[in-house]
């Protein structure tokens, strides 16, 4: 069974929020920070660190 990556991320994110109950501001900061870093000059460094 092939599951699209976006669907898997939504499910894992939803479960994480439901199970751990992080504050809403923390979720927003992480999402916004990840979006901004992905389009910045730090993207290659983060990509190398993850691989």
Explained architecture:
- The chain has helices at 5-20, 24-38, 43-50.
- The chain is mainly α and 51 residues long.
- It is flat.
- The two termini are 26 Å apart.
Features:
51 residues; mainly alpha; 0% strand
Rounded to the nearest angstrom, the radius of gyration is 13 Å
- Unreliable spans are none
Which structural class best describes the helix and strand composition? Answer: mainly alpha
How many strand elements?
0
DSSP strand content: under 5%
Shape from CA axes?
flat
Overall helicity: over 70%
Q: Could you state the order of secondary-structure elements as H and E? A: HHH
Total of helices: 3
Outline the biggest β-sheet. none
Mean of all residue-level pLDDT scores: 87
**N-to-C span:** 26 Å
Detail the topology: elements first, then pairings.
Blueprint: H1 5-20, H2 24-38, H3 43-50
Q: How would you summarize what this structure contains?
A:
By secondary structure, the protein is mainly α. It is 76% helix and 0% strand.
């Amino acid at each position: 069974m092939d599951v699209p990556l976006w669907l898997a991320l939504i499910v894992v994110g939803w479960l994480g929020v439901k199970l751990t109950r992080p504050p809403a501001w923390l979720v927003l900061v992480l999402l916004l920070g990840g979006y901004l870093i992905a389009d910045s000059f730090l993207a290659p460094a983060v990509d190398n660190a993850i691989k």
